């Protein structure tokens, strides 16, 4: 049996693009990081937080449909498209499903694809010490590309790819050293990502209502000393009317009279305070001088620990 591992993570950068023939650029797909494990008998899917998602994506449980290896660990992202672009909100419609009936319905309503970019284990042997170039050559041999399973492509010109991604309003790019091994649970500059838009996981410390339904979230992050810091409020985004109804019901047990934020939120008047347990993924343009998000957009309610919503996300 193959045990889940923490994946290798890229470092966020804003500097110059790496130079040299050993560097390649890849599209940063706005999806859910997912490793697939096949021990020769069955496939299991596990996300970067080591949460099992095998039931949510039954399309990828038949290993020989898309991979020739007798056993494997593949690394990639599961994405869903909307308006010609990957949509985190759409893929979360699948990722958040739990019951068999809702998953069966979700498979028909929301199509997903597995974008594979690495292999860690193949035919009974670990390959993490091999170079990325060698691992990519191995992927070319074992993966059977099809409509919903694709290999992530390399591009030699990072600047050109970044400019193209800006035009298409994509999330960003990742550039990788072709000589790099795969560091399980690691994070270093041999993999770097440059975002066009910022995003993070934020905990909900308060809400405002319109009538009897929540219409905006008051958001925060924890600092190094464990203090909960207000970073902005958001009501716009991709949540449907039903999503807001669900949020209204979900926050009921967390209502408190004590303000959880260390600093005073802009939207204190009329706000109802919460114990910060609900977490959302938020996309925004930039940080204001006052330390709040400019033009935040709620992408989805996510299954993420509130304690993991830290200031460090903004300073990686």
How is this structure best described in words?
This protein is an alpha+beta fold and 316 residues long. Helix content is 17%, strand content 36%. It contains six helices and 21 strands. The protein has helices spanning 63-66, 88-95, 100-109, 132-142, 158-167, 241-250; strands at 9-12, 23-27, 32-38, 43-47, 72-79, 81-82, 85-86, 113-122, 125-126, 149-151, 172-177, 187-195, 198-210, 213-222, 228-234, 255-256, 272-274, 279-284, 286-287, 293-294, 297-302. Strands 13, 14, 15, 16, 17, 18 and 21 form a seven-stranded antiparallel beta sheet that branches. Strands 3, 4, 5, 8, 9 and 10 form a six-stranded mixed beta sheet that branches. A four-stranded mixed beta sheet has the order 1-12-11-2. Strand 8 (113-122) and strand 9 (125-126) form a beta hairpin. The radius of gyration is 20 Å and the shape is globular.
SSE map:
Elements: E1 9-12, E2 23-27, E3 32-38, E4 43-47, H1 63-66, E5 72-79, E6 81-82, E7 85-86, H2 88-95, H3 100-109, E8 113-122, E9 125-126, H4 132-142, E10 149-151, H5 158-167, E11 172-177, E12 187-195, E13 198-210, E14 213-222, E15 228-234, H6 241-250, E16 255-256, E17 272-274, E18 279-284, E19 286-287, E20 293-294, E21 297-302
Parallel strand pairs: 1-12, 8-10
Antiparallel strand pairs: 2-11, 3-4, 3-5, 5-8, 6-7, 8-9, 11-12, 13-14, 13-17, 13-18, 14-15, 16-17, 18-21, 19-20
Number of helical segments?
6
Main pleated-sheet profile: 7 strands, antiparallel
| Strand proportion | 35-45%
**Overall morphology:** globular
Mean pLDDT: 94
Structural class comes to alpha+beta
What level of helicity do the residues show?
10-25%
Termini gap: 34 Å
